[in-house]
Write a structure and sequence with these properties.
There is one protein chain. With about 500 residues, this protein is mainly alpha-helical. The chain has a single domain, classed as Hydantoin permease (Orthogonal Bundle). Helix content is about 65%, strand content about 0%. The protein is built from 21 helices and two strands. Helix 9 packs across helix 16, helix 17 packs across helix 19 and helix 17 packs parallel to helix 21. It is globular.
Length: about 500
């Protein structure tokens, strides 16, 4: 192959002018190009790791983002979001339904917004965040996302698929987990093009099965169910249950945000921002809104139980006719695999954003995929107890760091007018403490508002009716601190002052 110089030569002057003059990326000398030739091949292992995608390798249309973000959310983990506020926090059906729809819409809008940065920048999300955090400071969000996506979400979704496959086939849980793991790791190992094609192939199956299952569940539900003060964690009353419902749903969708650019970075730089936004946002919103409402209905079905020893997928299957129950269990298995394909792939890219390289190996992303999956498999084996409360705690925990992270990268992009020099994102000597300080400040400021099993903050404990407002405090605090630091230091942080060229 001709190397980096040849790849740069393939960038047309029109492309270079566009990304210099319009909001987007200025390459700069030293920008590492993704090696190898990949194109639109589907049955080919994606080469390289977390490098910039040259224009000669860009392809596809925004519509692919609809399938890619829709299929992973047609799964039981999404439906279970609606179950928790009713079964655990005592929420009534209608308040919970409103909260989860609003949470889904807000999270999907954020996902759509950050997806629009992909075609302009051509880099993974956790490489782009170096603009705000610097090279070493970016270790904090990149490391957290590698753990959250590549290991945490891997375990959550693997368990969902494992329970469903075990119920459907009567296989032992350990054997079912091995099967689920092998399938999802294989798809993630092959890479970007195969992932998009896989999500498109499973979309119609998952959408049809879960729409029918949701309809059947809602016909058996009791929409008049009000607040239940006898629920296990109903101390916050109706308002607290409503707040929790909205936040965990928002946290679930926003949990995809540190991966948003990963699946849009191969789109041509001329791709319209509106098409990217709506394809990604609607892809995430539609399944999340429908399934969480159905989950709230499932929690009101007479005879369902949600204790630590109960298999959650069994509870759903019991409400469905035999054939639909079998198809739904199959759908749950496929949906969990669909979700984890993204988690494993993006977890590997986040790990590579730590700057760890496998020298002289073109398939370093693929190798990291296997390593993270092995750890995730072990975590999944350890997490088979009390699935419900563990899931709720996990959702809240990822929200606690993702909201301050999101505040920092969005404030940084606003201050820069969306303009970045790609070479700076790979420069090891470009460092700033502003991003890390702001993110840590946001987390610290939100701590008193935490309301979950692991930690009840003093404000949440004193005012339980507020629910969990940490996401508002964490975002606002981090944004304010970053703005103050970056705005006051301007040139030293590399951030333009808003309103100046």
């Amino acid at each position: 192959m001709d190397g980096q110089g040849t790849d740069k030569a393939r960038l047309s002057s029109r492309f270079t002018d566009r990304i210099t003059d319009e909001p987007g990326a200025l390459l700069g000398e030293g920008t590492p190009m993704r090696p190898g030739r990949y194109g639109e091949r589907v049955i080919a292992v994606e080469p390289g790791g977390a490098e910039y995608i040259p224009e000669s390798e860009r392809h596809g249309s925004p519509l692919r983002l609809f399938w890619t973000w829709s299929s992973p959310n047609w799964e039981f983990a999404t439906m279970f979001l609606g179950v928790l506020p009713v079964a655990v926090f005592g929420g009534g059906f209608w308040p919970t339904a409103v909260a989860v729809v609003v949470g889904s819409a807000a999270g999907a809008a954020v996902l759509g917004l950050l997806s629009t940065w992909g075609p302009a920048m051509g880099v993974p999300q956790l490489i782009h965040s170096r603009g705000a955090f610097g090279y070493r400071g970016n270790f904090l969000p990149a490391g957290l996302n590698a753990l959250s996506a590549g290991i945490g979400w891997f375990a959550v979704n693997s368990l969902s698929g494992t329970f469903a496959l075990s119920t459907l086939t009567h296989l032992r849980l350990d054997l079912a987990l091995v099967i689920v793991t092998v399938v999802q790791v294989t798809a993630a190992f092959v890479g970007h093009n195969f992932i998009h094609r896989f999500q498109k192939a499973v979309f119609p199956v998952l959408a049809v099965v879960f729409c029918f299952a949701s309809l059947v569940v809602l016909t058996q539900s009791h929409p008049g169910t009000g607040f239940n003060p006898g629920a296990p964690a109903a101390l916050g009353g109706p308002t607290g249950a409503f707040s929790i419902a909205g936040f965990i749903t928002f946290a679930y969708v926003v949990g995809w945000v540190p991966c948003a650019m990963d699946y849009a970075r191969y789109l041509p730089s001329t791709t319209g921002r509106g098409a990217v936004f709506w394809s990604a946002a609607l892809g995430a919103f539609l399944p999340c809104a429908l399934l969480t409402v159905a989950g709230a209905g499932l929690a009101t079905v007479t005879g369902t139980a949600w204790g630590p020893a109960d298999n959650p997928t069994d509870q759903l299957a019991r409400t469905l006719p035999p054939l639909l129950a079998s198809l739904t269990l199959l759908g749950i298995t496929i949906g969990s695999v669909s979700a984890n394909v993204l988690n494993i792939y993006s977890g590997a890219l986040s790990f590579l954003a730590l700057g760890i390289r496998v020298r002289r190996v073109q398939l370093e992303r693929a190798l990291v995929t296997v390593g993270l999956s092995a750890i995730g498999y072990v975590v999944a084996r350890l997490g088979e107890a009390d699935v419900g409360r563990s899931y709720e705690s996990f959702l809240l925990l990822i929200g606690y760091w993702i909201m301050p992270f999101l505040a920092v990268v969005c404030t940084d992009s606003w201050l820069r007018h969306g303009r970045y020099r790609v070479a700076d994102l790979y420069a090891r000597d470009r460092n700033s403490a502003a991003g890390v300080l702001a993110m840590l400040a946001g987390i610290a400021l939100s701590t008193p508002f935490w309301d979950q099993a692991i930690w009840h903050g003093p404000i949440a404990a004193a005012l339980p009716w507020l629910g969990d407002l940490s996401f508002v405090v964490g975002f606002g605090g981090a944004a304010a601190v970053y703005y103050a630091l970056a705005h006051s230091r301007g040139a030293s942080t590399g951030v333009e002052r808003r309103g100046h060229a």
